[in-house]
Amino acid sequence: MSIGIFDSGIGGLTVFKEIAKEFPEADIYYLGDTARVPYGNKSKETVIRYSVEAANYLKGFGIEALIVACNTASSYALDVLKENLDIPVIGVVKPGVETALRFTENKKVGVIGTQATIRSNSYLKLLEEKNIQVFQKPCPLFVPLVEEGIVSGEIAELVVKQYIDELVNKGIDTLILGCTHYPLLKDTIKKLYPHLKIVDSSQAVAEHLHRENLHLNGSGKRKIFITDESESFERFKQMLIGNIPLEKIDISQLCTL
Ligand code: DGL
Description:
By secondary structure, the protein is of the alpha/beta class. It has helices at residues 13-22, 44-59, 71-84, 93-103, 115-120, 122-129, 142-147, 154-169, 186-192, 201-212, 231-241, 251-255, and strands spanning 2-7, 27-32, 65-68, 89-90, 108-113, 133-138, 174-178, 197-200, 222-226, 246-248.
């Protein structure tokens, strides 16, 4: 089976890595929209338009399922994508919520993400349906921090504390990392708050796919496309998944679909 994954940029490679590890035989096509990143501070309409274009591009490779790795796109565009595509479309929000429901004992869950994801209340709505008390916080400094490779040490710890102390003080026992970049800060978060259970959406999606019983066998092909050159993408890719070559596509190819 061939599967498409898209994200606004580099962060979805955390999902790519997990899917490639769990389903080595699947053919995987990844699109990182590096020309238009970040999505996290864009309007709903713009996020939907970009997401539909990215999905249509990947559809051209005959993908049989689409993973929306970007939390912002999952929060705003999932329903539109499901309506427009005749293949399974899997976002990261529902799998993250499912994992949090298994983890939490005191029913107090923190959610962190981009401004847009938090504004959408996508996690909050699903969690509140299950009588979970939710504490949300946008963490806009996390994405640039991760893109600069500052994921541990004094500066990373200060920024993590700046955002997360407040949620921990509310008594949460579980924290959803509702953004593709945040798994890279997981070790620092764990070090500062060892008692917290942490939901990493990349792992949550892989677990969700196992439960869905999709037959993800193929020839193990890996293709990674980006819409603009990006040094941080190259660095991040090397660190996470090694030498898979990048192919740059012209953004106009997406916009005409
Ligand atoms: N991929 C985005 C997300 O998971 C983070 C980066 C961005 O703002 O585009 O929400």
